[in-house]
Amino acid sequence: PAEYKYLGAHVETPTAGVNQNVVYIDVSSMYPSFILTLNASLETTIGTRDDLRESEYTEDDCVWGYIDTRPVKHLDKGEPWQQYTDGQYKVVYDPHAPATKWSCDDGAGPRYEKVYFLAHDVQKGFLTECVEELIDLKNQYRGTSLYGSTKRV
């Protein structure tokens, strides 16, 4: 697979108790909510209506959401980005900068298409299970004597 450079985070050495510079995973935010609602995971993705017709599943086996299905263009080193602003890609990204050079928000906007995913009762996705496990762990550790109150404003 192609490898790209992404900016990462500095990981602090953990010690028991209250720590500074700790990032809290917001499992109530938009992306985990989408993952849980749509059961969005690689192995549960059916695709568009045409993909659904060709699959062994019916619409009753699925949940769906509207997603911009266009790919992201990753530029090669030194490659000009202007040639990719015709709407073929939803984002033009330079992994060597790293920077987004163009997005569909700069052009005609996103093109949403109905995308189908297997329902939870048909097959639960790996990402769905991961998010559920993170939520369970968060609930287990919330307010324990080791970590103190997590409900700070």
Write the layout of secondary structure elements.
Layout: H1 30-38, E1 45-47, H2 49-54, E2 62-68, E3 72-74, E4 91-94, E5 99-103, E6 112-118, H3 126-141
Parallel strand pairs: 3-4
Antiparallel strand pairs: 1-6, 2-6, 4-5
Explain what this protein looks like in three dimensions.
With 153 residues, the protein is an alpha+beta fold. The chain is 20% helix and 19% strand. It is built from 3 helices and 6 strands; from the N terminus they run αβαβββββα. The chain has helices at 30-38, 49-54, 126-141; strands at 45-47, 62-68, 72-74, 91-94, 99-103, 112-118. The strands form 2 sheets. Strands 1-6-2 form a 3-stranded antiparallel beta sheet. Strand 4 and strand 5 (99-103) form a beta hairpin. The protein is flat, with a radius of gyration of 20 Å.
Short account of what is shown:
This protein has 153 residues and is an alpha+beta fold.
Strand % is 15-25%
Count of strand segments: 6
Poorly predicted tracts of residues: none
Reading side by side through the largest sheet, how are the strands ordered?
1-6-2
Overall mean pLDDT score? 83
Integer-rounded radius of gyration = 20 Å
Biggest sheet record: 3 strands, antiparallel
Q: Tell me the domain tally.
A: 2
Helix content: 10-25%
N-C termini distance = 43 Å
| Element pattern in H and E | HEHEEEEEH
Short key terms for the protein model shown above:
single chain; 153 residues; alpha+beta; 2 domains; 3-stranded mixed beta sheet; 3 helices; 20% helix
